[in-house]
Write a structure and sequence with these properties.
about 70 residues; mainly alpha; 4 helices; about 85% helix; about 0% strand; flat
Length: about 70
């Protein structure tokens, strides 16, 4: 019963929970490596997410990457 209630609570507040996790992670990064390095890391993650998203969705982009990357990286 408690597990069902917890699962329902998480499903109802998924965005808030993800936002809290991201905020907590960013706060820890700022405290450990500094503000500008944390911003740079977040930017690198965002670019990586964008490239990965393009790779998953677009077969032309995937074919381009497979053509330019060495076979060991694929």
């Amino acid at each position: 019963m408690v597990r069902d209630n917890l699962t329902a609570l998480i499903k109802a507040n998924k965005g808030r929970i993800i936002g809290i996790g991201i905020g907590l992670l960013f706060g820890i990064l700022v405290l450990t490596v500094g503000f500008w390095r944390s911003i740079f890391l977040a930017l690198c993650v965002a670019v990586g997410f964008g490239v990965g998203s393009l790779y998953d969705k677009d077969s032309k982009f995937r074919a381009f990457l497979e053509r330019i990357l060495p076979t060991g990286i694929k």
